[in-house]
């Protein structure tokens, strides 16, 4: 469609939804649209509208969904939008709005989604916003988004809010502490350093401890792709998955903020280099295997990550990264993430649980196979599977369970992805060990 919106649209008093997005419409919004008292949804995204937003839109008391994104609207923030008391969704990104967001926006107690990316806004966010369903506190300039979807990137000197999920309550994070060079960050411990980046232990101003993943520069992507992926991850809630509390992006830095796991990593407990941890017995290792498989099966089946990956949408990155030893061999050619690739990585972890050995390392230089997977296959081929089991937990009672876990792991790390089981089947096989 081309041209402008006829002012006569304002005479359609029974109209409940007006969807004119993804066209070539121009001009301004007719003031007469403010007469549509029954309007619930107004979508004008991706057109060429310009000029200020008419104050008459504030008369649409029943409007719950307003999308004016990707146009050329300008002028000050439309103050009348603060009158939309039933609004749950406001999207005004990619326009030319100026000045600051008015205080009355904080009156929108039902608001769940606010996006004003890439405008020319400045000033402070109204204090009352943090009491709405958006949740959370944000400070200093930059981009910061939470699982309740507040997005104000690409503006000027904004204070932004980052929050946890509603069930956990707001998580207050001072984003300015992440804006300094790495050496100046108040991140006291490196927890992990892998192919995707470095994970730090960080203490927030309120004393809360979190894990912050800082992506390596080589693996960062554009803001839109990053946001899409994080919004997908933000929907994931499962007892066997670490909770993503929030994420932020400023300049070229991209950070994820996770719950901090106080008991440490599996690597720490399996290798126990300091001798400060008790040995993981077979029951604990089996529980770890089942819990991990359950979380991954949820991602693949219930959450639908398999469909997301297969569709190759921007929600899931196809840029392969990871830690050496866990990356499936086929990724070297296809450069495409797959659920069967996840199964391979899980299989390596399962091998670690039964052998207590790292996936790669100097110890394999003098052994057949060159790495953990290759070494295990060589031993199994020679009917010497017992030799790979961790001697610290190996006894007459644990041996049958450990060997069954080893066989499941071997299926998971098969060279041919098509022969690997699904995670749902892996979970079933693990349960059958004790059934």
Automatic annotation (TrEMBL):
Give all residue intervals belonging to the Protein kinase domain: 185-434
Query: Which Pfam families does the record match to this protein?
Result: LRR_1 (PF00560), PK_Tyr_Ser-Thr (PF07714), Pkinase (PF00069)
Subcellular compartments = Membrane
Which keywords does this Swiss-Prot/TrEMBL entry list?
Glycoprotein, Leucine-rich repeat, Membrane, Receptor, Repeat, Signal, Transmembrane, Transmembrane helix
Q: Which GO terms describe its molecular function?
A: ATP binding; protein serine/threonine kinase activity
Q: Where is the signal peptide?
A: none
Q: What InterPro entries would the database entry show?
A: Kinase-like_dom_sf (IPR011009), Leu-rich_rpt (IPR001611), LRR_dom_sf (IPR032675), LRR_Rcpt-Like_S/T_Kinase (IPR051824), Prot_kinase_dom (IPR000719), Ser-Thr/Tyr_kinase_cat_dom (IPR001245)
Kindly give the membrane topology term recorded for this protein: Single-pass type I membrane protein
Annotated Gene Ontology cellular component terms:
membrane
Just give the chief location class. membrane
**What's the name of the protein?**
Protein kinase domain-containing protein
| Organism field | Citrus sinensis (Sweet orange)
């Amino acid at each position: 469609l081309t041209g402008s919106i006829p002012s006569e649209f304002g005479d359609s008093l029974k109209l409940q939804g007006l969807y004119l997005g993804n066209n070539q419409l121009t001009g301004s919004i007719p003031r007469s649209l403010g007469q549509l008292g029954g309007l619930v949804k107004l979508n004008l995204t991706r057109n060429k509208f310009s000029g200020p937003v008419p104050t008459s839109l504030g008369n649409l008391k029943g409007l719950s969904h307003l999308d004016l994104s990707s146009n050329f609207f300008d002028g000050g923030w439309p103050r009348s939008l603060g009158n939309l008391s039933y609004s749950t969704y406001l999207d005004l990104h990619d326009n030319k709005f100026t000045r600051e967001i008015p205080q009355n926006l904080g009156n929108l107690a039902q608001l769940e989604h606010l996006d004003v990316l890439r405008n020319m806004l400045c000033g402070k966010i109204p204090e009352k916003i943090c009491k709405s369903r958006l949740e959370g506190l944000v400070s200093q300039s930059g981009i910061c988004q939470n699982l309740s979807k507040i997005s104000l990137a690409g503006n000027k000197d904004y204070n932004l809010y980052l929050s946890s999920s509603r069930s956990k309550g707001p998580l207050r994070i001072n984003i300015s502490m992440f804006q300094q060079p790495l050496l100046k960050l108040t991140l006291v411990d490196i927890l992990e350093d892998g192919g995707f980046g470095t994970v730090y232990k960080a203490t927030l101003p309120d004393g809360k401890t979190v894990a912050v993943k800082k992506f390596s520069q080589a693996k960062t992507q554009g803001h839109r792709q990053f946001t899409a992926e994080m919004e997908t991850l933000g929907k994931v809630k499962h007892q066997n998955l670490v909770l993503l509390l929030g994420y932020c992006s400023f300049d070229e830095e991209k950070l994820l903020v996770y719950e901090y796991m106080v008991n440490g990593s599996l690597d720490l407990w399996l290798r126990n280099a300091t001798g400060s941890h008790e040995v993981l017995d077979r029951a604990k290792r089996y529980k770890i295997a089942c819990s991990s498989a359950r979380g991954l099966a949820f991602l693949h089946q219930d959450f639908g990550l398999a469909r997301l990956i297969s569709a190759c949408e921007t929600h899931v990155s196809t840029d392969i990264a990871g830690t050496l030893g866990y990356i499936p061999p086929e990724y070297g050619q296809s450069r495409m993430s797959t659920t069967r690739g996840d199964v391979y990585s899980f299989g390596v972890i399962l091998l670690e649980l039964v052998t207590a050995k790292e996936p790669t390392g100097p110890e394999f230089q003098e052994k057949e196979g060159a790495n953990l997977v290759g070494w295990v296959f060589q031993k199994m081929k020679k009917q010497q599977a017992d030799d790979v089991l961790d001697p610290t937990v190996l006894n007459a009672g644990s041996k049958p369970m450990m060997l069954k876990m080893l066989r499941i792991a071997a299926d998971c790390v098969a060279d041919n992805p098509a022969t690997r089981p699904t995670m749902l089947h892996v979970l079933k096989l693990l349960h059958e060990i004790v059934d």
